[in-house]
Amino acid sequence: MNQSVVHASRVLMxxxxxxxxxxxxxxxxxxxxxxxxxxxxxxxKDDRLIDLAKLWSKVMTILVIAGVxxxxxxxxxxxxxxxxxxxxxxxxxxxxxxxxxxxxxIEAVFLALYMYTWNNKKxxxxxxxxxGSMIILGGSLSAYSxxxxxxxxxLPKGFDIIGxxxxxxxxxxxxxxxxxxxxxxxxxxxxxxxxxxxLAGIYAFKLKKEKLxxxxxxxxxxxxxxxxLASSIVILLSIVTGSISAKYLAENEPSKLxxxxxxxxxxxxxSYVFGGIINSEGKLVGPRIVVPNLLSILVxxxxxxxxxxxxxxxxxxxxxxxxxxxxxxxxxxxxxFSLTIFVYLLASYRKIKFFFTDTYLKIFGIISFLGLVIVExxxxxxxxxxxxxxxxGYVTTEDALxxxxxxxxxxxxxxxxxVLLFVVTYLAIKKVTKNKAQ
Amino acid sequence: xxxxxxxxxxxxxxxxxxxxxxxxxxxxxxxxKDHKRNxxxxxxxxxxxxxxxxxxxxxxxxxxxxxxxxxxxFVFAFLAGSFLVARGILYTYIFYVKQNNKNKxxxxxxxxxxxxxxxxxxxxxxxxxxxxxxNHPESNSMFLPxxxxxxxxxxxxxxxxxxxxxxIKD
Lengths: 438, 170
Known about the structure:
By secondary structure, chain A is mainly α. Chain A is built from 15 helices and six strands. Chain B has one domain (2-169). In chain B, helix 1 (2-31) packs antiparallel against helix 2 (43-61) and helix 1 runs parallel beside helix 5. Chain B has helices at residues 2-31, 43-61, 66-97, 105-135, 144-167. Chain B has five helices and no strands.
C-alpha cells in the first residue's frame, strides 16, 4: 500500500472529525443550556434570561449548518474512504447508522419547531420547552448511536466468525455493549464540560469590559456562576466515568493502555509515569515523574493488580509511542482546567473580587477554552491508540482503506474547506451576537 | 436486492427535487436587485436530513460490496461533497455575515455551488443505480424490518413541517 495514500486518508479523516467534534460539542450542549435558561427565565419571570436563551438558540442554528455539512462529509468519508470497516461489519453495526439518522431527524424537526415558535403566542412556554427537550433527546440518541459504532470498532462484539464468515449476529449486543455505554457517558460529559466552559470563557471576557464594582451584579456574572455550578457537577461525574474507562481499557484494550501509560513490563505494582517516551527498543527514556503503584491502584484498586505491558504486545501491533505524550498533555490540561473550575466556583459564590479583576478574568477566559482541546486530544487517543487496527483484531487501517488513488487529491483539499467553514461560522456567530447586543 | 435501491431512491429523489427548487431560488436571488432574502429557511434543518438518510441507507444496505461501490462513486461523491460544503460556506456568508446585497459575486457563486452539487449528486445516484443493476451486490436485507418503518415514519415526520416551511420565503 502506498503510504502517501494512507497518510492523505488519515489527514482527511482526522481533520474532518476534529472539526465535526468541535461543532458537535456545542450542538449537544447548547440545547441544554438554552432550555435551562429558558426555564430559569420563566421561573424568575426574567426576560433577560429568556432573551439570552433565544440568542444562544440562534447560535445553535448557525452551528447546525456547519454541523450538517461536516457530518455529511464525515459520513461520506467513513463509507467511501474506509469501506473496509462496513464491508467487514456492516451486518453487525449497520443498524446504529440508521438509528443515528432517525434520531437526527427528531433533532432537526424539533429544532425547526423550536426556532420558529419563539414568538408564537399560540405556543405556550411549556410546549416550547417540550420542543427544546426533544432537540436534546434527538441529539443524545444520535450521539449514542454513532458512539456505539466507535465503541464497536474499538472492541467488536455481537458476532462469531465461523468458517471465515460472520455468524450468530446479535445487532443489539453490538449496539448496547458495555463499551458503548462507557464511551458514550464519558464523551458526553466531556462535550458538556468543554462547551459550557468555553461559553463561560466568552462571558468572562464580556464581564471584563464592565466596571469592577458592577461585576457581581451583572448578568454576565450570573451566567458564569451558573455554568461553573453545572461544570463542577459534570466534572465530578467525569472523574467517575474516567476511572471506569481506565479499568475498561486495562481489561479490554491492553495495548492502548500500555502505550498511553508507558507500561513496558507486565506485572503488579505498576507505576504511573508522567513524561518520558518509549523508544524503538521498547525502553522508557527521557525525563519523567514516576509514582509507584498508582497505575495498579487506578485500574485494579490494589497495588497488587497486574497491568499488561508492551512486552506482551507484538511490535507491529503497538500504537505509536507518541500517544503517551498526547496523554500527558491531556492530563496536564485536565488538572489545570479542573482546578480553575473549582477555584472559580468558590470565588463566584463567595464573591472574592481578587479572582474577578481584569488579569485573572483574562486567565480564566483562556483556560476555559482548554476543554475543547482536551476533548480533541481524548479522541486522538482513542483513534491513534487503536492503531494499527481500524476494527480491533479484525481489519487493519491499511486494509480498510479505499482502493481509489484519488484520495490523495481530496485529502489535502477538504481541510481548506473546513478552515473556510470555520471562519465563516465564527463571523456569523459574531454578527448575530453583536446585533443582539446593539 | 432491489429493495435497498428503492429505499435509497425515495428520499434521494425528494431531496434532489427540493434541491432543484433551491437551485432555482438561488438563481433568482443572483439576478434579483432587491435586498430580500428570497430563500427558504428549512434547508439545513430538514431537507438535508433526506440526503444523509439516503447515503447511509445505501452504504449500510450494500456494505458487503462497499469497497467496489466506493471505488466506483469516489470522484463524483467527493465532488458533490465539495460543492455542498462550498454551498454551506456561501449560505452562512450570504445570510448571516454579508451586510448588504451590493456584492453579487457571492450570490452567483452560491448559485454555481447549487448547480455543481446538483449535477454531481445526480451522477452519484445514476452510478449507484447502474452499479446495483450491473453487479447484483449482496444486500443486508436483515435490516429491512427496521429500515422500512423508519423511512415511512421519517417521511411522515418531515413532510408536513417541510411543506409549510417551503412556503415561507424571506
